[in-house]
């Protein structure tokens, strides 16, 4: 019984932390200006990145994931001059449309950031990645990518997030 309550407390804390991160993101973003903000400014506003990817032209892209509780992932590009050249929220229908069969998992991760959940399906010889995002009008959705054993995209899908309160059947 105590273990169950500990798990409930952990889930509540994770949800609250996710809400706080999302609420703080607009303030963090507003404090950064493309072409002016430096890497130090980005780290001051957002902290340590989840991952750092090499960017074209000698820059680097900092990944700031808001999964599993949030609905956004940010990619912030720092140019070779040390200044922020782009800040974008990447969990969008436009980016989801770019995920095509045969694409490698690392390329999908570079585009969308850290997934909310990774689920292996050994009998089907697949691994499924889920990202939580917001659709109009702010409905919680999941974007799902199924990969084969070589981590190449097999298929994608979008669906209402079954864990979101607004999508639960009463």
Notes on the structure:
With 170 residues, the protein is of the alpha+beta class. It has two domains: 16-89, Beta-lactamase Inhibitory Protein, Chain:B, domain 1 (2-Layer Sandwich), CATH 3.30.1450; 93-167, Beta-lactamase Inhibitory Protein, Chain:B, domain 1, CATH 3.30.1450. It contains four helices and eight strands; from the N terminus they run H-H-E-E-E-E-H-H-E-E-E-E. It has helices spanning 2-30, 39-46, 93-98, 105-112, and strands spanning 51-54, 60-65, 73-78, 84-89, 117-121, 126-135, 139-147, 153-160. A four-stranded antiparallel β-sheet has the order 1-2-3-4, with helices on both faces. A hairpin with a 3-residue loop joins strand 6 (126-135) and strand 7. The longest helix is centred in the first third of the chain and has 29 residues, at 2-30. The two termini are 26 Å apart. Mean pLDDT is 86; it is low at 3-23.
